[in-house]
Design goal:
The complex is a heterodimer of chains A (331) and B (482). Chain A contains 13 helices and nine strands. Chain A is globular and about 60 Å long. Chain A is of the alpha/beta class. With 482 residues, chain B is an alpha/beta fold. In chain B, 39% of the residues lie in helices and 17% in strands. Chain B is built from 15 helices and 21 strands. In chain B, α14 links the parallel β18 and β19. The model of chain B has no long low-confidence stretch (mean pLDDT 97). The chains are: A alpha/beta (331), B alpha/beta (482). The interface between A and B is large, with 40 and 45 residues. β1 of chain A pairs antiparallel with β14 of chain B, so a sheet runs across the interface.
Chain lengths: 331, 482
């Protein structure tokens, strides 16, 4: 047997109140001040971050631990369809799958949310009524974010009016990369306001930010602006979610909670297709931020094909043998 | 509180390795009985006796040296260098093929986590043979004269912290340069060397080229003081290294020593803090701190001291401790009761001298030899824990204010094996590196090894280099001597 020396090592040590990020109240007083703050965050050594993610990727998760990880991962899936060809029929099929991912096994948990374009949020809401499964809608001129602020806010309001419980917005990467941090910040604040009671996930599109330093800065920016979740990618840009990026974002939410008392969720999206990938992410959470983030309230997988692999692995654990792709539904 | 996500046991199977109840010495290509009193080797994680191993007497050592001399004169010395290279390539491939077997045996005998023996020790050992195999027929291009020649018989004594890897560091360059070898493994960790003897047989290495004589200090003394040994190579404690230097003084033997260390790991305030914390953990807790180049003195710039220490303590709490054979173990067992006693003694000094001792919450296994990862803060450069090599999972934290002070404190040691620098500023890294008196300086990483990179120390950390082109010099004469 082997055990963690101190299971409480990653427990909450924050001194903040959980309402306002007090220590940082004045960092957004000007773009220069905000730039100085973001560039003053400790750097990220890419080689070191990749090495750490790689070591955690070698953890051997077997038997009972694997069963727990698979069920937890299923319950964290934001089952997603974001295609130009989406129809109400497609969304209803996805909703049915979200409620009962494995029709042969009632003990299989439901997913966390169904994620669609804003115009189909109403269809999803109707199909999921009373299930406890949330409807997430992408907005703000997803995926590029290239539209005026008015159009983006209208997009958000429309999705919320259609019944979205969660809004997945994209940041203005152009503004971020030219150093107009305050513009990006103010836009998130405005979107948050337009969300009303809907939860806001802020997509950083890390594949376009490229460096891990930028990922850390964008994470802090999004958290300070009031994002409830920070999310890696739209799924439309490669690379999407990678372990080192997720590691840096987890470190950011950990440090942010320590400083302010407010907990922010993390959602890797795009490129996570296998159970192995999903389990590696759960290991990353477990050893970077601890149990507090091991729930669908604080961690999500944005994925479509991942769910079927999780179901196949789940059946394998239950029956002892691999079934085939025809034993899970094609959506 | 327990974690939501408990990892189920994931033990590596030990059935892959066949440990014999007793082992003889490997002399002249065969296993033979030793004439000394046999030693028992134990698994330090359970105190279970693994096997009984022969002890080589002076007479046994003499037989081994004579076999090595015969092989040097008759087969290995005259052999075409390209053919010697082929043998080394074959050994390297066999090490890879049987990697799991070596990893399991190393972990059982040494106590180190299987993750480390599997991912570090064994692959690096194979890499050393591959690297040196390539040199075998290119020695005239090594910058050591137009026709460098082997020395003859090398007597090599290696430590218990990386038993197979240290064997590779010694044997690979010796054979590539045309020497033959009498090697004495450490008394607490002889088993992978004896499995390596099987590899030599499997590779059809000519008899006598590699001889392995197990035993304790007496056997080692017999190896280094044998009159027909031309070259002595030792890795181990500075204390034993000194006595070897005395024993070899006045003879024509060539000598290289790779001894202790008390490396400074310097964290500047512009460091990538999360990666620096990983590097500090890797620097001092890798292999339970049984590493001569361990980063055992942490020098932190005062402005980030509290942040770094808090982050480090949080990270240490997440280390997984326990069965070294479990694939998820980060911290294994201390190699022997003797070493555990030494670590305890030095750690106790730290407290009586006034440093603040911190250890994470949590239990250690009941059986076997274990020591909690330990961090001393408020350490003064005058404290023994800041000066003596602990060779265990014990870190001493000190502070500095300016780069000059960091360099002065880092160099203020009788050792000089390695050092680490953490900074995002390239010019600072280059400048400080130039000023550090240490054989290896790592920048934004720690405890990275590669056969192409020479390794060795300044001052009481020894002399000579192992690995790289420079390492070949220890086993060659330029042609005009001898």
């Amino acid at each position: 047997m082997t055990h963690v020396l101190d299971p409480n090592a990653l427990a909450d040590t924050s001194s903040g109140t959980g309402t306002l990020p007090d220590p940082f109240a004045d960092v957004t007083r000007s773009n220069d001040a905000f730039r100085a703050f973001l560039h003053g965050l400790p750097g990220v050594d890419q080689v070191g971050a990749e090495a750490r993610a790689k070591v955690l990727g070698t953890r051997s998760i077997k038997t009972t631990a694997k069963a727990w990880a698979i069920d937890t991962a299923i319950s964290m899936v934001d089952l997603t369809t974001l295609e130009g060809s989406d129809t109400p029929g497609k969304v209803r099929a996805l909703a049915a799958k979200a409620r009962r991912p494995d029709p042969t096994d009632p003990s299989c948990p439901a997913v966390a949310a169904v994620c669609v374009y804003g115009d189909l949020a109403g269809v999803a809401q109707e199909a999921l009524a009373g299930t406890g499964i949330n409807v997430a809608a992408v907005a703000t001129a997803f995926p590029s974010g290239r539209a005026s602020r008015e159009v983006k806010l209208a997009d958000v309001r429309d999705a919320v009016a259609n019944g979205a419980d969660e809004i997945d917005m994209v940041i203005d990467r152009g503004a971020f990369l030219t150093g107009r941090y305050l513009d990006v910040f103010e836009e998130i604040v405005a979107v948050k306001e337009a969300c009303g009671s809907a939860h806001l996930k802020v997509i950083l599109e890390t594949g376009e930010l490229v460096t891990l330093d930028a990922v850390r800065r964008a994470s802090w920016l999004a958290m300070l602006a009031g994002g409830d979740f920070i999310k890696t990618s739209t799924g439309k840009v490669s690379p999407a979610a990678t372990l080192p990026v997720c590691l840096v974002m987890l470190e950011a939410v950990r440090d942010f909670r320590t400083a302010t008392g407010r907990q922010v969720g993390v959602k890797p999206a795009g490129g996570i297709r296998t159970t192995k990938d999903a389990v590696k992410h759960l290991v990353l959470i477990n050893e970077t931020v601890g149990s507090d983030w091991l729930s669908p309230d604080w961690f999500r997988f944005g994925a479509s094909s991942l769910l079927n692999d999780l179901l196949l692995q789940r059946q394998k654990l239950r029956t002892g043998h691999y079934s085939g792709p025809d034993h899970v539904s094609v959506d | 509180m327990t974690s939501l996500f408990e990892y189920a046991p994931a033990p590596e199977s030990r059935s892959i390795v066949d440990i014999r109840p007793s082992y003889g010495l490997f002399v002249d290509g065969e296993f033979v009985d030793g004439t000394g009193t046999p030693l028992k080797t134990v698994n330090p994680a359970t105190e279970e006796v693994l096997s009984e191993v022969a002890t080589g007497s002076e007479e046994d050592v003499d037989r081994a040296v004579r076999a090595a001399r015969r092989a040097f004169v008759k087969t290995w010395g005259p052999m075409r260098p390209a053919d010697r290279g082929k043998y080394l390539f074959r050994i390297a491939r066999l090490l890879q093929e049987r990697a799991r077997e070596f990893a399991v045996l190393e972990t059982l005998d040494n106590g180190k986590p299987i993750r480390e023996s599997r991912d570090v020790d064994v692959p690096l050992a194979a890499a050393h043979f591959f690297y040196h195999a390539g040199w075998a027929d290119k020695l005239e291009h090594a910058g050591l004269g137009p026709a460098p020649r082997p020395l003859g018989v090398a007597g090599q004594v290696i430590p218990w912290n990386f038993p197979l890897l240290m064997l590779a560091w010694k044997v690979a360059p010796a054979l590539a340069t045309g020497n033959t070898v009498v090697l004495k493994p450490a008394e607490t960790t002889p088993l992978t060397a004896l499995l390596f003897a099987e590899i030599c047989q499997q590779a059809d290495l000519p008899p006598g080229v590699v001889n392995i004589v197990t035993g304790a200090g007496e056997t080692g003394r017999a190896v280094i003081s044998h009159p027909d040994v031309d070259k002595v190579a030792f890795t181990g404690s500075t204390e034993v290294g000194r006595s070897i230097a005395r024993a070899v003084a006045g003879t024509e033997k060539r000598l290289t020593l790779e001894l202790g260390g008390k490396a400074a790991n310097i964290v500047f305030d512009d460091a990538p803090i999360d990666q620096a914390v990983e590097g500090i953990v890797r620097g001092i807790f890798f292999n339970q701190g049984h590493v001569c180049c361990a980063g055992s003195r942490l020098l932190v710039q005062e402005s980030v001291h509290d942040e770094v220490v808090a982050s480090l303590q949080r990270r240490i709490g997440t280390l997984r401790v326990g069965d070294p054979m479990d694939k998820n173990t980060d911290l294994g067992a201390i190699n022997s009761a003797e070493q555990l006693a030494r670590i305890r003694e030095l750690a106790a000094f730290g407290e009586t001298e006034g440093a603040t001792c911190w250890q994470p919450e949590g239990e250690l296994p009941d059986r076997g030899f274990w020591f909690k990862p330990t961090v001393f803060t408020d350490v003064s450069p005058a404290h023994r824990i800041a000066r003596d090599e602990v060779f265990g999972p014990v870190l001493s934290v000190m502070t500095f204010r300016t780069p000059d002070e960091a360099v002065a404190k880092a160099n203020n040691t009788t050792y000089g094996l390695s050092a680490g620098i953490w900074s995002e500023k390239g010019s600072r890294i280059l400048k400080v590196t130039d000023q550090l008196r240490a054989g290896v300086v790592w920048a934004n990483t720690f405890n990275e090894f590669d056969p192409t990179s020479p390794f060795g120390g300044y001052k009481q950390s020894g002399y000579g280099r192992e690995g790289g082109r420079q390492g070949l010099a220890a086993y060659l004469s330029s042609g005009d001597q001898k």
